[in-house]
Amino acid sequence: MHILKLTSRTFYVPITLLKPTLKETVASAYLCMRAIDEIEDHESLDAKTKQYLLQSTSDLLKNEFDNHAYQDLVTPYKDKLPEVSLRLGDWITFCPDGITKKITDSTSEMAAGMAKWVEQDWRIESKEDLDDYTYYVAGLVGVMLSDIWEWYDGTKTDRNLAIAYGRGLQTVNILRNQEEDQERGVSFIPNDWSRDDLFVYSRQNLNLADEYIKDIKTRNILLFCRIPLALAKRTLKALKSGREKISRNEVETIVDEIKNQ
């Protein structure tokens, strides 16, 4: 849980509130995807290296994961890559047997998609591009979570709404980090869009996320899903009013309110 706390602002608190089996599963699955994400986001790795690492990792995840081969892959970059990426094999090992394949499949697809967008230099020119990019980097998180819910207790959710759940959270992050992204020469806003258009897109996906959680009846899972969604909605409202983020006190209040519902 220490590595999880270091790497996740959105999911750490809700994961800690899950029951033991779900907590271990969701934490391990999240860390698998975070391991990939840290490669894509790395500030000092060049694009060619990122593509190589991401695609090679995707290929390794398509079969029974060979951690020795993965360590051979990442060892030349061990002084640059964070611990969460170097320990991908550990996170896979911690996943319960019955759900491991679903988690590695989604992580493999995410890594391949990220490799594609690194190659394209993250050039988001249209809504279709934005849909595609956010599917790989966040929509697949929703897909993975839905797979876990069904494995855990048979909870069935709509796949497209699960994608929208992840996409909605991601677009709030895009809005919050827009200036920082522009400083490094990246824009996730389609060519003919304004910032206001991205606010609309984000709200649309967060509304679909509301529909996603209506299929969830297990209270512990519902609690998990509601917290990031509520934080994203409050952050979107704060950004629209000109604030950079919500306060720690606001976060704590939102979490307490949801826990006590």
UniProtKB/TrEMBL annotation:
<dbReference type="InterPro" id="IPR044844">
    <property type="entry name" value="Trans_IPPS_euk-type"/>
</dbReference>
<dbReference type="GO" id="GO:0051996">
    <property type="term" value="F:squalene synthase [NAD(P)H] activity"/>
</dbReference>
<dbReference type="InterPro" id="IPR002060">
    <property type="entry name" value="Squ/phyt_synthse"/>
</dbReference>
<dbReference type="GO" id="GO:0045338">
    <property type="term" value="P:farnesyl diphosphate metabolic process"/>
</dbReference>
<protein>
    <submittedName>
        <fullName>Phytoene/squalene synthase family protein</fullName>
    </submittedName>
</protein>
<dbReference type="Pfam" id="PF00494">
    <property type="entry name" value="SQS_PSY"/>
</dbReference>
<dbReference type="InterPro" id="IPR008949">
    <property type="entry name" value="Isoprenoid_synthase_dom_sf"/>
</dbReference>
